[in-house]
């Protein structure tokens, strides 16, 4: 069992350790409980906007391929997989474009674009990651982790208020449920020991859900209407291939790759290190390959889930076997619509309290990654300021880009893109120790002090 040394957090279970099976199941359930609503929300949002599609089936496929991708990340399949505790699911990164393209071109164009660009973009990045790794030092990847956590906070607040568009958005009982979950999780994590601390998030969600049921806020009608078992159907949706959707999703998979790099760095930051080349490559391969395969069955892209990276840092449980169990649970949910329907009856406000905590932990782990491995001199502080300023700027005021061409607006309104590209470009072109174009001698220049040779006698 690890102790807190050289920047590591205190780990209850290290990467290859196996907690007892009962505890592993509960810890895996905690991962599933935190990610299942946001993972399936993309299917509900896009399917509802497009109309005329089997949304329940899409939800089922999202859960199935999220589970398969999670298992592959934990245990690998040849070169695919990172052998890290990375929970996979469908990201909100794809919601806007998938909705617009689905309405304008049809769902088949969305799935066709995913099929073409998923492994093409992320597979290429993963394959060549060793070459481009010098361009992604902890300063850059840490900033990606920070912005992922920061832009998840408004999403968490929306959940806590009842969900965007809900008729009871901001109702006191929604805020009360979220506060209850947050309070239980904080108290157990900070003041309890053993299993109670490790399962603090699951305990908070359980208490919040039980309270919601007791108060009559839970609707179980979807559970009785769902089938017990339903198998995936390849080719259920006819695929089409349109240039604009393909180019758009190519950009979005670039964002997904950046998020995965950031999430993997957040996970390994618990050990005080960055991921290895093989871990980066395998993780990116999984993102791209499983996304492309899933599209043939009707699933949206799968990528790493930031809030689950936050769970690892929050609980100190880094065991990949726990995450492998979580992946198996997601596979079962994907094959059983009735079980999945039961899980999705949990009110969004209950998840809001948990996601808020996780988003903050993700951002905090990014800051720790930067501080452990980067000298925060004038050069690097300016890069941090510019990157976070632009990333948060387009998040809080997206209307500022409304006059740009559609493709440019879609691209530059993504906070991860703005933060990552700013950090990447500045870190590359400004002389300094972290720059891949300049040697370490430029460190003194970046700090603003010239190098002076001291004369010596021959």
Kindly describe this structure.
This protein starts with 20 loop residues before the first helix and ends in a 12-residue tail after the last helix. It has 458 residues and is mainly alpha-helical. It folds into two domains: 21-373, no CATH class; 375-447, no CATH class. It has helices at residues 21-50, 55-75, 95-105, 107-127, 129-132, 138-160, 172-191, 195-198, 200-214, 221-225, 243-268, 277-295, 306-315, 320-335, 337-343, 348-373, 378-396, 406-412, 415-429, 443-446, and strands at 88-89, 303-304.
Structure characteristics:
458 residues, 2 domains, disordered N terminus, disordered C terminus, 2 strands, mainly alpha
What's this, in brief?
The chain is built from 20 helices and two strands. The protein is mainly α.
How would you summarize the topology of this molecule?
Blueprint: H1 21-50, H2 55-75, E1 88-89, H3 95-105, H4 107-127, H5 129-132, H6 138-160, H7 172-191, H8 195-198, H9 200-214, H10 221-225, H11 243-268, H12 277-295, E2 303-304, H13 306-315, H14 320-335, H15 337-343, H16 348-373, H17 378-396, H18 406-412, H19 415-429, H20 443-446
Antiparallel strand pairs: 1-2
Helix pairs in contact: 1-2, 1-3, 1-14, 2-12, 2-14, 3-4, 4-11, 4-12, 6-11, 6-16, 6-17, 6-19, 7-9, 7-16, 9-16, 11-12, 11-13, 11-16, 13-16, 14-15, 17-19
Subcellular location: Cell membrane
Keywords: Cell membrane, Membrane, Transmembrane, Transmembrane helix, Transport
Membrane topology: Multi-pass membrane protein
State Rg: 22 Å
Mean pLDDT: 83
Helix vs. strand class: mainly alpha
How many strand elements? 2
* Tally of alpha and pi helices: 20
Distance between the termini: 56 Å
**Spatial order of strands in the largest sheet:** 1-2
The overall number of domains is: 2
Strand percentage lies at under 5%
Q: Biggest β-sheet, characterized?
A: 2 strands, antiparallel
């Amino acid at each position: 069992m690890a102790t807190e040394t050289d920047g590591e957090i205190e780990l209850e279970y290290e990467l290859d350790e196996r907690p007892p099976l009962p505890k592993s199941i509960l810890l895996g359930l905690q991962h599933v409980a935190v990610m299942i609503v946001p993972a399936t929300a993309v299917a509900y949002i896009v399917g509802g906007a497009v109309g005329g599609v089997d949304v329940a089936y899409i939800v089922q496929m999202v859960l199935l391929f999220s589970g398969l991708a999670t298992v592959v990340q934990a245990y690998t399949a040849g070169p695919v997989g990172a052998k890290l505790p990375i929970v996979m699911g469908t990201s909100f990164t794809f919601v806007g474009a998938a909705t617009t393209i689905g309405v304008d071109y049809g769902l088949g164009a969305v799935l066709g674009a995913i099929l073409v660009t998923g492994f093409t973009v992320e597979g290429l990045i993963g394959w060549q990651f060793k070459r481009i790794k010098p361009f992604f030092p902890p300063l850059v990847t840490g900033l990606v982790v920070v912005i992922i956590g920061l832009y998840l906070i408004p999403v968490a607040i929306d959940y806590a208020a009842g969900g965007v568009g809900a008729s009871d958005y901001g109702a006191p009982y929604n805020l009360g449920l979220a506060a209850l979950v947050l309070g239980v999780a904080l108290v157990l994590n900070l003041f309890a020991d053993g299993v109670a601390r490790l399962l603090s998030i699951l305990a908070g969600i359980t208490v919040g859900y039980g309270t919601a049921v007791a108060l009559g806020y839970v609707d179980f009608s979807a559970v009785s209407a769902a089938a017990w078992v339903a198998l995936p159907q390849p080719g259920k949706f006819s695929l089409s291939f349109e240039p604009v959707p393909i180019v758009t999703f190519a950009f979005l998979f670039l964002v997904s790759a950046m998020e995965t790099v950031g999430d993997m760095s957040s996970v390994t930051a618990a050990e005080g290190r960055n991921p290895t080349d093989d871990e980066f490559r395998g993780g990116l391969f999984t993102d791209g390959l499983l996304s492309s395969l899933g599209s043939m069955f009707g699933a949206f892209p799968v990528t790493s889930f930031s809030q689950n990276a936050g769970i690892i840092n929050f609980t100190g449980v880094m065991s990949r076997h726990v995450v492998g169990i979580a992946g198996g649970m997601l596979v079962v949910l994907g094959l059983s619509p009735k079980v999945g329907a039961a899980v999705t009856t949990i009110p969004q406000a209950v998840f809001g309290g948990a996601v808020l905590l996780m988003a903050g932990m993700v951002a905090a782990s990014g800051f720790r990654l930067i501080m452990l491995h980067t000298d925060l001199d004038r050069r690097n502080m300016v890069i941090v300021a510019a990157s976070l300023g632009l990333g948060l700027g387009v998040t809080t005021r997206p209307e500022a880009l409304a006059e740009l061409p559609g493709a440019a607006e879609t691209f530059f309104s993504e906070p991860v893109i703005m933060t990552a590209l700013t950090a990447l470009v500045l870190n590359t072109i400004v002389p300094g120790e972290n720059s891949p174009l300049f040697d370490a001698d430029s460190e003194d220049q970046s700090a603003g002090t010239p190098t002076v040779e001291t004369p010596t006698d021959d």
